[in-house]
Write a structure and sequence with these properties.
The protein is of the alpha/beta class. It has helices spanning 2-6, 25-35, 37-40, 65-75, 85-88, 95-109, 133-147, 170-175, 187-198, 207-216, 222-242, 284-293, 300-313, and strands spanning 54-58, 79-83, 113-118, 156-162, 178-181, 245-248, 254-256, 265-266.
Length: 317
């Protein structure tokens, strides 16, 4: 069973730092309290002031829950387990529960450690009368291992992520002492996301233009913005594809130009020597066109449902 779970251990760092995550300051501070401080500064905690043992990140899809987990895996100086339902659910009677027990045993042996469970609602949904007996036993084992009699989870953090927190079992919800909503990014964070992704490619976007793009992308999630940036970065490639005229650059390359440019030479992309092709820079207009083409994937009613659940059970970020 240890061999079956060894593939869930993240051996190679995802190389995502806290600075790579734009916005979400409240969530980052909560994770640092639970992940970094107990390891680097154990004297800050005692028998009463304990670090968090369970943190639930919830919110609309694409807002950065898994990205935050990657930052934890990078910054964590212990063992990071990345778990999905396929790692724990088995067709054999009783094996799923034993896998869960083995997972927590390995985490305690290799502490400090983090167990990250993505889409935790698929494993720990609400218990009902007509549900499968195997699913009920899986939930029970999770509850016992997270906070059962005789289980000492010092140095073990359970980090859960879900898009539908209201579907979690109420006993499992209580196990997560800190419940943080990962909301849609604010205008400043949206500008930061697009700047970080877009500025790696040659562009003509000014600082004020990034701010304007952040304000123009109201309602977009981090994942949506990544798609917008990718769409914008493709426009110079498309200009190369459709160009009928190329002009030489001072460095000796060839760049697409407009048909009436006297410096241009009639040729198609396939006639340009590959080593001489120069891709045009991305412009602000490319980003604006991409925003018009790609719409937000998150429904505002869904966001409101998360806010309502936060008002009852969670902690707003």
């Amino acid at each position: 069973m240890e061999g079956a779970l060894s593939s869930a251990i993240v051996e190679i760092s995802p190389n995502v730092s806290w600075d790579d995550v734009s916005g979400l300051e409240f969530a980052k501070e909560g994770l640092k309290e639970a992940v970094v401080l107990p390891i680097k500064f154990p004297q800050l905690f005692d028998d009463v002031r304990q670090p968090w043992r369970g943190i639930l990140m919830y919110g609309p899809p694409g807002t950065g829950k898994s990205f935050l987990a990657q930052a934890c895996a990078t910054e964590c100086e212990g063992t990071f387990f990345s778990i999905s339902s396929s790692d724990l659910v088995s067709k054999w009677m009783g094996e799923s529960e034993r896998l869960i027990k083995q997972l927590f045993t390995m985490a305690r042996e290799r502490k400090p450690s983090i167990i990250f469970i993505d889409e935790i609602d698929s494993l720990c949904g609400q218990r009902s009368e007509g549900e499968n007996d195997s699913a009920r036993r899986i939930k029970t084992e999770f509850l016992v291992q997270m906070q059962g009699v005789g289980n000492n989870n010092d140095g073990v953090l359970v980090l859960g992520a879900t898009n539908v927190p209201w579907e979690l079992d109420q006993a499992m919800r209580r196990r997560f002492q800190k419940r943080i909503m990962i909301d849609l990014p604010e205008a400043e964070a949206r500008a930061g996301i697009m700047r970080k992704k877009g500025s790696k490619t040659k562009n003509t976007v000014a600082d004020d233009d990034w701010i304007m793009l952040g304000q123009a992308s109201e309602g977009y999630s981090g994942s949506d913005l990544a798609n917008v940036v990718n769409e914008a970065l493709m426009f110079p490639v498309r200009r190369c594809q459709s160009a009928k005229r190329f002009k030489p650059t001072p460095e000796g390359g060839l760049i697409p130009t407009f048909p009436s440019d006297p410096e241009g030479q009639d040729m198609t992309l396939m006639q340009v020597p590959p080593e001489k092709l120069v891709c045009p820079p991305v412009s602000t207009d490319d980003f604006m066109t991409a925003l018009q083409r790609i719409k937000p994937s998150v429904n505002m009613d869904d966001v409101q449902q998360h806010h309502d659940w936060t008002a009852e059970f969670g902690q707003d970020s």
